[in-house]
Design a protein that fits this description.
globular, 6-stranded mixed beta sheet, single chain, alpha/beta, binds NADPH dihydro-nicotinamide-adenine-dinucleotide phosphate, 16 helices, 7-stranded mixed beta sheet
Length: 487
């Protein structure tokens, strides 16, 4: 028997047992109740709600529900701080930002544990991706703070004023960094609203803001549900930066029409991950798995539609299923875990509904055997084959660990099918031919196209969408522009 044949016949190591490797939660000191962080102080909120751990639904803390009046107070604090902050030399602003970056790096374990506890994502992801990237964003934008005139030559860049920033629950700390770092570097002050289900790392960040001795009012954090977000959109701010669902993004755009407030939207996606028959197959399978099961598929740029060239359909699906059987689903705080908990009951119900629709419409479902914990919100990694382009699972953003597999024969067909969606956030191409990568990248209507990799992020690289995936870019110099006035 050849070595390859032996390996092909070997059982997938799904039966291996891993000794539990739980990360201790002791490093995190939660308060029983949090207020709102306004003007450098903690203010009491009149109402509160409980935020829970998705892994077992246990309550973690009481969090303030900011009212419209609370939001106005936060905006007033940001406005008050703007005069001083915007007039500081860029090199001074940079010092504060470098300090924030360093503190984030120093307290990275605490942030990683809290992110996994409150959001449900595997600790190895929050530890190795979310927190280091968040610190990297502050480092990167700190570097630009005193170089704006060089970054935008002959355009007299000036800060806008107060930015209202609304972020989702899938990358709570990282989205905070994507929003706050460029805004501060450009000389703006901010009021940020984290998502209702994942406020805790943003609240811990307030501690970092104080530790860095950032002038009071430069960063304000108001927690609450969608009504708090809506109040922020309506408040006396100069710019709205929103990441979240396309529906809410559209509602915000309608609300802002004619107000003169600037807007950037980073919305949903239904990315095509396109695999050609000349690719390195095993690497592609790793990329497919990373593309859809990273962060339980709670990723706007997740590679949720897999397009496989017809000639390699069988081996790709077979290898994919074998690899899926090795994924370890379970406690987000266990260092072995690959796929953690679903963020909330609401999101779990949405995933279940769309998966049921996929089966009803005629797609074939595969889920590897895995024991899901009894408590908490869980969904097994799932792949659908026999999917038609018209099925809901091929059209709608599921935002869960669910992959739809489709096929194509020619590059033209791949492009046509990949672009057949209202979204246009990201795409992936797997092939050994550089010329084909460039040919595809030119034609794919997606803000980011990864070649022979997927879900790679870097603070220097702009990220954003086409069509219903939004407009404006975050990251890189492009990410500074929306926070500057050039008139
Ligand atoms: P939302 O778009 O509702 O939430 C994003 C943020 O906006 C949250 O902070 C939310 O607050 C806030 N918000 C809600 N309503 C309003 C409003 N009217 N005005 C201003 N801000 C508002 O996403 P969901 O959390 O409800 O998720 C729903 C779906 O959206 C997911 O299933 C997924 O498909 C998609 N999604 C896409 C994301 C992306 O990155 N592209 C990120 C998150 C979700 P609150 O948390 O209190 O609702």
């Amino acid at each position: 028997m050849t070595e390859l044949a032996k390996r092909a016949g070997a059982p997938a190591p799904s039966g291996w047992t891993y000794a539990p490797a739980p990360e201790s939660t002791e490093i995190v000191r939660l308060r029983d109740r949090y207020g709102l962080f306004v003007g450098g102080e903690w203010l009491d909120a009149t109402e509160h709600y409980t935020t829970v751990a998705p892994r077992d639904e246990s309550p973690l803390a009481e969090v303030g529900q900011a009212s419209a009046a609370d939001v106005e107070g936060a905006v007033a604090a940001a406005r008050g701080a703007f005069g001083t902050w915007s007039k500081l030399p860029g090199s001074e602003r940079a010092k504060y930002m470098f300090r924030i970056a360093r503190i984030l790096a120093e307290r990275s374990r605490e942030f990683a544990v809290l992110e996994s506890l409150n959001g449900g994502k595997p600790i190895k992801e929050s530890r190795d991706v979310d927190v280091p990237l968040a610190a990297a964003h502050f480092f990167y934008y700190a570097g630009w703070a005193d170089k704006l005139e060089y970054a935008f030559p002959n355009r007299s860049p000036k800060p806008l004023g107060v930015a209202g920033q609304i972020i989702p629950w899938n990358f709570p700390l990282l989205m905070l960094a994507w929003k706050i770092a460029p805004a501060l570097a450009a000389g703006n002050t901010v009021v940020l609203k984290p998502a209702e289900t994942t406020p805790l790392t943003a609240l811990l960040f307030c501690d970092v803001v104080r530790q860095a001795e950032l002038p009071p009012g430069v960063v304000n954090i108001v927690t609450g549900d969608g009504s708090t977000g809506a109040a922020l959109v309506d408040a006396e701010i100069d710019k709205v930066a929103f990441t979240g669902s396309t529906d809410v993004g559209k509602a915000i755009q309608r609300r802002l029409a004619g107000t003169g407030k600037k807007l950037t939207l980073e919305l949903g996606g239904k990315a095509a991950n396109i695999v050609f028959d000349d690719c390195a197959l095993d690497q592609a399978v790793e990329g497919i798995v990373n593309g859809i099961y990273f962060n339980q598929g709670h990723v706007c740029c997740a590679g949720s539609r897999l397009f496989v060239q017809e000639s390699i359909y069988e081996p790709v699906v077979e290898k994919l299923k074998r690899r899926m059987a090795t994924l370890r689903v379970g406690d987000p705080l266990d260092k072995n875990t690959d796929v953690g908990a679903i963020n909330s009951r609401m999101q779990l119900e949405k995933i279940e509904e769309l998966v049921a629709a996929g089966t009803e419409e005629g797609a074939e479902i595969y889920q590897p055997p895995c024991d899901l914990p009894e408590k908490g919100y869980w969904f097994a990694p799932t792949v659908f084959t026999n999917v038609a382009q018209s099925y809901r699972i091929a059209q709608e953003e599921i935002f869960g660990p669910v992959l739809s597999v489709l096929t194509f024969r020619t590059p033209d067909e791949a492009v046509e099918k990949a672009n057949n969606t209202p979204y246009g956030l990201s795409a992936g191409v797997w092939t050994e031919k550089g010329s084909r990568i460039l040919w595809m990248a030119e034609r794919l209507r997606a803000g980011v196209v990864w070649a022979n990799t997927f879900n790679r992020f870097d603070p220097t690289s702009p990220f954003g969408g086409y069509k219903e995936s939004g407009f404006g870019r975050e990251g890189g110099l492009h990410g500074m522009e929306p926070y500057l006035d050039f008139s």
